[in-house]
Amino acid sequence: MNRVDIRKSVALLLIGYGVSIRTRGFRLCIQSVERMLFDADNSTKALSKSAKYASIDIKSAYKYVLCNALKVGKRLQRKFTPGELLQFLAENVAERAIKDDWHHNSDTFYSLGSNF
After folding, report:
1. What is the value of pTM for the model shown?
2. In this predicted model, what pLDDT tens digit does every residue of 20-73 receive, in sequence order?
3. What is the C-alpha to C-alpha distance for residues 19 and 56, in angstroms, rounded to an integer?
4. Which terminus of the chain, N or C, has less C-beta within 10 A?
5. Max CA distance (Å), the chain
């Protein structure tokens, strides 16, 4: 999965969660997830910077992503790094979004976590 795919996946995830693309935090959230996956050394800095400028909705979206990533790891009974978990989740989110066009349907989005 390349950087463009990850940006699209995270953007779809946030839009599905109801976060406005016009907020500054939206862009920062996408950038920080991208950094977590491609630049492990700066992941903590990226997350704290994003949290500082992000709205409550984006913080909730982060929580949703991370909770589901942990569920995926337990379900597969495999140890993942945080980056691997987020990448796995992003791939599944993108695949599901294409299948169901769920960014227009919040019910599908909220049920996503239970389908892993």
Report:
1. 0.36
2. 666 666 666 666 666 655 554 444 454 445 544 444 454 555 566 656 555 555
3. 10
4. N
5. 38
